Amino acid sequence: MKKTTQCYLEKDGKFLMLYRNRKKNDMNEGKWIAVGGKLEAGETPEEANAREVFEETGIRLNSAVFHGIAEFRNTEYEPEDMYLYSSDDFEIEPGYVPECDEGELAWIPREEIWTLPMWEGDRAFLEPILNGECGLEIRLSYEGDRLIGVERNS
């Protein structure tokens, strides 16, 4: 079971999103996602979230809100439990767009996020996260790239 984090960083009504287009054999290729990654041995989800945000963006979080867990089950990929976070508590220079070796980062206005190509299931937890909901428990079932089921227990 793969355990990962994903963090939606918000500044001035815009969210830092990552367009995945630089890694080989990337299941997320061609999709926009929030920054995050795998938990390392002995790491808590909170520690992994802060580390992954820093590694991918150079941004140090002061704090983050934990929103819940999305369980991804896919016929083609390893099962994954993703710890979902958001933060607007960090310091950056105005207009700063960090570099990432996994893809292109961009500050996207909230209303434009919905137009981005992303995993269809991400939309099931993105709206509750943007509305500040916590305690999310969502199971997303896929056959390859095709979403076949969404179960929400919150």
Q: How would you characterize this protein structure?
A:
With 154 residues, the protein is mainly beta. 14% of the residues lie in helices and 45% in strands. It is built from 2 helices and 9 strands, in the order E-E-E-E-H-E-E-E-H-E-E. It has helices spanning 45-57, 122-130, and strands spanning 2-11, 14-20, 32-33, 35-38, 61-74, 80-90, 103-109, 136-143, 146-152. Strands 1, 2, 3, 4, 5, 6, 7, 8 and 9 form a 9-stranded mixed sheet that branches. Strand 1 (2-11) and strand 2 form a beta hairpin. It is globular and about 40 Å long. The model has no long low-confidence stretch (mean pLDDT 91).
Features:
154 residues, mainly beta, 9 strands, globular
Structural class based on helices, strands and sheet pairing: mainly beta
Strand content: over 45%
For this structure, the quaternary state is single chain
Which of globular, elongated, flat, extended, rod-shaped describes the shape? globular
Chain-averaged pLDDT: 91
**Unreliably modeled segments:** none
Topology as H/E string? EEEEHEEEHEE
* Rg over alpha carbons: 15 Å
Helicity, in percent? 10-25%
Tell me the number of helical segments per DSSP (H or I, 4 or more residues long).
2
Separation of termini? 22 Å
Taking the sheet with the most strands, its summary is:
9 strands, mixed
Number of strands: 9
